[in-house]
Design brief:
mainly alpha; flat; 5 helices
Length: 139
């Protein structure tokens, strides 16, 4: 039964990262995550969670890069508004993760740890792409 759920979760990862993008090119971080999940040694709860954690760290670096690029193009007023928005996003992210962690860790089965890791990754991925879109709109 647990194996069945793990397969479902793995397929969900692939759907989100293969088809959840707005353009047709797969982002290198998404490709790296897909390759990590496809690896035979990562067909476990620990392996899948590790792939998601690694992807989240990569997305966090991408988020910070995009934030810095965007800040370099903004007026003083816009910079302050972005700083405020980013602080609020961090508060939202932390509260969202706190809620999801409580909910998923109270459910039966190790598959929920994979879902939790994926949720954390997706929050950071989404914000990184939003900041990149703002920057791209300026050019």
């Amino acid at each position: 039964m647990v194996v069945k759920y793990m397969v479902i979760i793995l397929l969900a990862f692939r759907v989100v990262y293969s088809y959840g993008q707005t353009d047709t090119k797969e982002h290198p971080i998404d490709r790296h995550l897909r390759e990590c999940l496809d690896s035979a040694e990562n067909q476990t709860t620990v392996g899948m969670s590790g792939c998601a954690v690694e992807a989240r760290q990569e997305w966090d670096r991408e988020l910070n890069k995009n934030y810095d690029l965007l800040m370099s193009q903004l007026s003083v007023d816009e910079k302050q508004k972005l700083k405020d928005a980013q602080r609020n996003w961090i508060l939202y992210r932390d509260k969202e993760i706190e809620f999801a962690r409580t909910m998923y860790f109270n459910l039966q089965g190790t598959m929920w740890r994979i879902v939790m890791a994926q949720r954390q990754t997706e929050l950071t991925r989404q914000r990184a792409l939003e900041l990149k879109e703002y920057y791209d709109n300026l050019h």
